[in-house]
Specification:
about 220 residues; single chain; mainly alpha
Length: about 220
């Protein structure tokens, strides 16, 4: 009996170690890519273009937390809870993210029509696309963690990193698309990563989400 308990304890530590390594690899890949590609960006893009790209990416990241009320944290929290049905947790998170995308689209159209910023038209489009891609990638990754599919999440993150690297090299060095190519790579990488994650998440059963359940998710995300 003692040996059995020790085996269980050893298995728990082994499982924890595996997940820690996978999460570290996923995080390291993204950070390494960002560091590795800086010389490429500064050589290919002008100072003004790189600055504009940084504004778009920074704004997108900030807007994800503001407009989605950080729903990814709620999805992780409630998805882990065995008393909750994980499919409706993910579904509600997707609804919040979709609503946030609609709100941002209206806001960007209004800003464009009022000429509040001296931006090229396609900058607004890419800000929305980068926001949407980042939003749903975050949702998918948090949900995969919640349902204990850390390996899938790690593969998804690494896939996004590899695709972003390949698309940057293709668009910037081969096709010479400049700013447009850089922004496009920011959309393609997370989008394909999310698509891979969804293969392991779907299909989900659509259920009605109660008012009280919505209230709990909102309060948890704040």
């Amino acid at each position: 009996m003692k040996n059995k308990g020790g085996h269980i304890e050893k298995s728990k530590y082994s499982y924890l170690l595996q997940n820690t390594i996978l999460l570290s690899l996923a995080s390291f890949g993204s950070k390494f890519l960002s560091f590795f590609l800086v010389p490429l960006y500064t050589n290919v893009l002008s100072t003004a273009e790189y600055g504009m790209a940084d504004i778009i990416t920074t704004s997108s990241t900030l807007l994800v937390y503001v407009l989605t009320i950080n729903i990814g944290s709620s999805v992780l929290r409630f998805g882990i809870d065995k008393n909750e049905k994980s499919d409706r947790v993910f579904l509600y998170g997707a609804r919040i993210d979709s609503f946030a995308c609609v709100i941002l689209a209206f806001g960007l159209v209004l800003i464009y029509l009022l000429h509040l910023f001296n931006w090229e038209g396609y900058y607004y489009i890419f800000l929305w696309l980068v926001f949407a891609a980042e939003t749903f990638e975050t949702l998918a990754n948090q949900f995969l963690r919640a349902i204990d599919k850390v390996r899938v999440m790690a593969v998804s993150s690494l896939l996004g990193t590899i695709v972003r690297l390949a698309s940057n090299l293709l668009f910037l060095l081969v096709l010479k698309w400049g700013m447009f190519g850089y922004l496009l790579s920011l959309v393609i990488g997370p989008s394909l990563a999310t698509a891979y994650a969804l293969i392991h998440i779907l299909p989900l059963k659509i259920e009605k989400v109660s008012h009280e359940y919505k209230k709990n998710l909102h309060s948890e995300s704040k």
